[in-house]
Amino acid sequence: MAFRNLRTGLMVLALLMSVVVAGSAAGKVTINDAAGRVITVSSPLERVVVLASQPAEVIAALGAQDAVVGVTANHVLRDPITKEVYQGRPSVGEILNPNVERILELDPQLVISIGAWGGARQAALALADQLAPYGIPVALIDCFPDVNSIFRDVATLGKLFGREEKAQEYIDFFKGYLDLIASRTQGLAPSERTRAYLEVMDYTVTSWGHRMIAAAGGEDVAAGAVEKAPSVRVSPEWVLAQNPQVIVARAMPPRLMGYGTTENSRIRTEWNDIASRPGWDGMDAVRKGRVYLLAFEICSAPRAPIGILYLAKWFYPDLFSDLDPGAVQREFLSRFFGITDYPGVFIYPEGK
Q: Residue 222 is part of which domain span?
């Protein structure tokens, strides 16, 4: 009888413990999104709709892609990595025009979009108002364009999906290389720092481009301009007067370079159009052949730290003769996505 009672007691205790564990697993997590809104959801997330490729890419890198039940056709299913990962997932329309009815059919716990791009931000906030009556929050989680927002948002996604350790591994992977750059360039005098100009589109410079240059140890010739506004259009004469030692342009349109591309006349034309601008042949960067194109996906994307490695290599080839940004990208893709073959043109001229 005593044995039977003991056994029964242990079974009851085990049942109670399982209830406690299940209750703790289905806890709540509170985050602050890119719009400064406080959002509380159940965690770890099991059903989410993702409208943008940037957070979708990071979710996959954290190994949480199975929780994604819906994506956008023109954004998530357009990017090479996220297209491969989420092929076959239901589409909820386009990032600027998501289908509310389709989202409701998928019954997500959370919808994730981005806020750094104005059009997407407005669309996401409007969607949040539409979904609020149904108890489905919309979070703006950018995962771009600079390392500050990337690392912050990777940590946030790790928290939401219960993948904190993997998120920290992601952050540590890139942070190790960025710390290497900082350690090698911190002793440079102001006169020794490479003066650079990073153009994101048609003579447009940005605050995040400024932070990329700074992270690579360079001096941004547009630093004064972007201190006053996050995005500034400058004139070709202004750039000429600054006489940068290195010019870097983000390749536009986004699919001009990147995964699956090969060196072609369009890329060469893009480069020539920049290097041959009127009067620029007298600029140090052009005269010395230090004009480069950088693929969109390693410039303003979750993999922007790889772009920073290229900048450091271009700014200080002697300091970073042992650094191979391409090898770093391959290691990252292999470790976090299981991708071992990722052909494409990511910089131009290649071999620089």
A: 188-348
